[in-house]
Design goal:
Chain B: Belongs to the SufE family. The complex is a heterodimer of chains A (about 300) and B (about 140). In chain A, about 30% of the residues lie in helices and about 10% in strands. Chain A is of the alpha/beta class and about 300 residues long. In chain A, the strands form two sheets. A five-stranded parallel beta sheet of chain A has the order 1-5-4-2-3. A four-stranded parallel beta sheet of chain A has the order 7-6-8-9, with helices on both faces. Chain B has about 140 residues and is mostly helical. Chain B has a single domain (about 5-145), classed as Sufe protein. Chain: A, CATH 3.90.1010.10. Chain B has a three-stranded antiparallel beta sheet. In chain B, a hairpin with an 8-residue loop joins strand 1 (about 50) and strand 2 (about 60-65). Chain B is globular, with a radius of gyration of 14 Å. Classes of the chains: A alpha/beta (about 300), B mainly alpha (about 140).
């Protein structure tokens, strides 16, 4: 039984209002049976400094990634992780985090690869929760372990691999990194650790829409007309488009994936999680430098 | 230059390695809470501070080498970035009182050796390696000046 949806009128404008909750709703529903709140942050220690009461922590590096291969955990690992956090297949999960829900959106995307049905974001994440004066605790809950079924990940619809992106060239690509990363201006200087990619620039024809453009000053998602102006008018995305988003390692682009899929209702959006750290080091893939998207290379 | 791990940094490593993975995060949080405020003279001069771009959180450092050749590392990062604060605090405490040569001889891979790669992830540890790398670069610039 999913926990009732947040009826807040500002959510109704989005394509999938069932994917967001407000702080007001969450505060009122804390402790509801069938609801588990998950914190997922860029900073691995932030949860320890204080979190929403009853929230469990899931870290994308140490929990959701395979420790050896560059991939996500498998169905067995996911079942073990979620079961230990007290999450069943029919649990309503609300994820929130730091940095405009950047990592929370990433966790939500991984949950979606496993087809977890009811997973929502707390609009505004930690920043809005704090700004609204809502409480944190440092008490770490001890959830009663439950059974989560072993469901294999389905990467085919929401995730793009490098070869998929090569085959995709000619269709819309959204590069959500900063303009400096996009143009390839940022290079490695002496005594600076490397940036994790051997080449700088962007995938030919990609539109540059830095991920945080989708977020308002207070950390919540911008209203639909503003999002339309950015992604439809600005980046030229159209209904029915097949879209791939990427960034450096796939985290910022899962935020954009969330916006395009759940807020604007695009039906075919994939996140290329290999992103620039793979593309920028791969042999013989096309790269464009500078501020212009560049043309799709003829093959 | 020969590499050698200064006494305080070696002690900090012992402290981390003596703990279980989960408790290492708690110790890192303690370090994080101990990061000293910037001295007044830098609080008013943000232009003197260098941003460590490799860290996803805004962290700024400034290195002084005093008349006796002793290195003073100052670092600041917001409370929303406790991990980065913890990394900076380990270096501030671990490098305290060392000479420029001693700082330059700290092995570059020290951050990989304190038992945090599993607890924090190798990617995040890169932020600490960047902090150490930029600290050493500033020391080199200061003694060359």
């Amino acid at each position: 039984m999913p926990v009732e949806l947040d009826p807040a009128p500002q959510l109704a404008q989005f394509a999938h209002p069932d994917r967001l909750v407000t702080g007001e709703w969450l505060e009122a529903h804390l402790g509801t049976p069938g609801l588990v709140v998950v914190e997922s942050d860029e900073d691995v220690l932030l949860y320890e400094t204080g979190h929403i009461e009853g929230a469990v922590k899931i870290d994308w590096h140490t929990d959701l990634n395979d420790p050896v291969e560059r991939d996500y955990i498998d169905g067995e690992g996911f079942a073990k992780l979620l079961g230990a956090k007290g999450i069943s297949r029919d649990t309503t999960v609300v994820i929130y985090g730091d940095k405009n829900n950047w990592w929370a959106a990433y966790a939500l995307w991984v949950f979606s690869l496993f087809g977890h049905e009811d997973v929502r974001l707390l609009d505004g994440g930690r920043a809005k929760w704090e700004a609204d004066g809502r409480a944190y605790t440092t008490e770490v809950p001890q959830p009663t372990p439950v059974d989560y079924p072993v469901v294999e990940r389905d990467d085919s619809k929401l995730r793009a691999y490098k070869d998929d992106v090569l085959a995709h060239l000619g269709n819309p690509l959204v590069d959500v990194r900063s303009p400096e990363e996009y143009s390839g201006e940022r290079t490695t200087a002496p005594a600076y650790p490397d940036e994790g990619a051997l080449r700088a620039g962007h995938i030919p024809s990609a539109q540059n829409v830095p991920w945080a453009k989708a977020v308002a000053e207070d950390g919540t998602f911008k209203p639909v007309p503003e999002l339309d102006a950015i992604y439809r008018e600005g980046a030229g995305l159209k209904e029915g488009d097949d879209i791939v988003a990427y960034c450096r390692i796939g985290e910022r682009s899962s935020h954009t994936w969330f916006v395009l899929t759940h807020l604007l209702g695009f039906e075919k959006v994939r996140n290329y999680d290999g992103s620039w750290t793979e593309w920028g080091s791969a042999v013989r893939v096309p790269i464009v430098k500078g501020a212009d998207p560049g043309a799709v290379p003829s093959r | 230059m020969t590499e050698s791990t200064p006494h305080q940094l070696a002690e900090i490593r012992e402290e981390f390695l003596a703990l279980e993975t989960r408790d290492r995060l708690q110790l890192l949080l303690e370090f994080s809470n101990e990061l000293p405020e910037l001295p007044e003279r830098y609080r008013e001069h943000p232009d003197l501070l260098e941003r460590v771009e490799e860290c996803q959180s805004p962290v700024f450092i400034f290195v002084e080498v005093d008349g006796q050749g002793i290195v003073h590392l100052h670092a600041t990062a917001p409370k929303e970035a406790p991990t980065t604060r913890g990394f900076a605090s380990i270096l501030v405490q671990g490098l305290a009182g060392l000479t420029a040569d001693e700082v330059l001889s700290v092995p570059d891979d020290y951050p990989n050796t304190i038992g945090l790669t599993e607890a924090v992830s190798p990617l995040r540890i890169r932020g600490m390696k960047a902090l150490l790398g930029r600290t050493k670069r500033q020391v080199r610039e200061k003694i060359a000046a």
